[in-house]
């Protein structure tokens, strides 16, 4: 039997077995590669903002859908520049990194020493090729009394679901950052028709299987990142990225998947998937996976205005109870030791909340937090057991932590359900009608399948059953958040259609939360 320590010591090296052969095996990096086509086909990105810098990312891939991105050279030099202006005339930092075949020729540059609360611009160069120019933004200084924060919350972007008009709209808004809650890719095999029998507006290569190997996952990210609207969004502002289930496999939990794969074998798939996630996200070196493990929970501070606690609700959670799915709760779901974050992450969050002096404390996580009956039939109940309703004891521990620390303005960000949902959070997690202590904004999907039945009827029925539910929308899109010391405004932005490129985007519903007065008010 293989244990995790033995896997970390030796097993992770097996991930490179599906690499193609390459010509050069040793020697110095190639300083002036002769690319026959553009190597920056996957665009540029920034992320992990701090008061003095951020991460900038790119990946060399002249043939993006090839197993190796079309490159056989082990090491290639990539130059980078940071400038004060979008024409790159006033360069303030520059340097050279090495793109290595072991990391799919991805480059992650951690920039430091910049000024807080301002825009910077960046680009990459390799050989005679130059990338697109991206915009990044630093966070406010720790002691800053920053007066305004603008960001988007988005995720669930199945390639075959439809076009990325929401990302085009996000790019145009030039936010301070984007919180991507997860499901950046979907691991499913290519399919010719949707469940309802209709033809998807765009499809993957027909021979692509379910993602299981490192090459599979790399190709899937490459496909998604060829989209011009997604590239524009990444180039427009930093991303704070999380992952949910489809970056590995649907509804995975901790060391297991729904197929019942032995955990020591599932670790190989999980390690491959997390390596590919790291290679394609603008994240720091401390997030390089160690085999099947990746430290994903972290914290961002926006001066005195807000603390953003990014949670990981996949790696340490209890397996879904009651056979998983959408159904009534069973006794297993109510066990007191069930968890969504694991004991160590719960302690980390408690410590962060205790130390916070921010006006707003934001729990940025992946799945539905509040108790919510999702069956519109008044005679039945249906809870999402992949979400916090599958571990109500964990939700109650978190709510108790918020109460004990007198966190006055908690905001929960979530996703996964492919709906736009706004709820008030009761101080008793088992009784959503109890005194309101915070709010949850669940963002809808960029393109993944949504509600196909009468959405207005379902919205009315669900709000009648759930008094804390204030909005339920079925459109695709994203949520825009505008935060000041006195109020939090959330705009649910909806795309008219994802069946063709360029769908119009409009505000479907807006709410305001007043600081010190928990609850949702129509804006």
Describe the structure.
With 523 residues, the protein is of the alpha+beta class. β1 (44-50) and β2 (53-59) form a beta hairpin. The model is unreliable at 11-25 (pLDDT under 50). It contains eight helices and 24 strands. It has two domains: 4-136, Immunoglobulin-like; 137-522, Purple Acid Phosphatase, chain A, domain 2. It has a seven-stranded mixed beta sheet with strand order 11-10-9-21-22-23-24, with helices on one face. α2 runs parallel beside α4 and α3 packs parallel to α5 (263-280).
Q: Can you give keywords for this protein?
A:
globular; 523 residues; Immunoglobulin-like; Purple Acid Phosphatase, chain A, domain 2; single chain; seven-stranded mixed beta sheet; alpha+beta
Task: Give the number of helices.
Answer: 8
The domain tally reads: 2
CATH architecture tag of the largest domain: 4-Layer Sandwich
Could you name the CATH topology of the largest domain? Purple Acid Phosphatase, chain A, domain 2
The side-by-side strand order for the widest beta sheet comes to: 11-10-9-21-22-23-24
By CATH, the superfamily of the largest domain comes out as: Alkaline phosphatase D (PhoD)
| Structural shape | globular
Q: Which range best describes the helical content: under 10%, 10-25%, 25-40%, 40-55%, 55-70% or over 70%?
A: 10-25%
Uncertain regions spanning at least 5 consecutive residues: 11-25
CATH secondary-structure class of the largest domain? Alpha Beta
How many beta strands in the DSSP annotation?
Answer: 24
Biggest sheet descriptor: 7 strands, mixed
Mean of residue pLDDT?
94
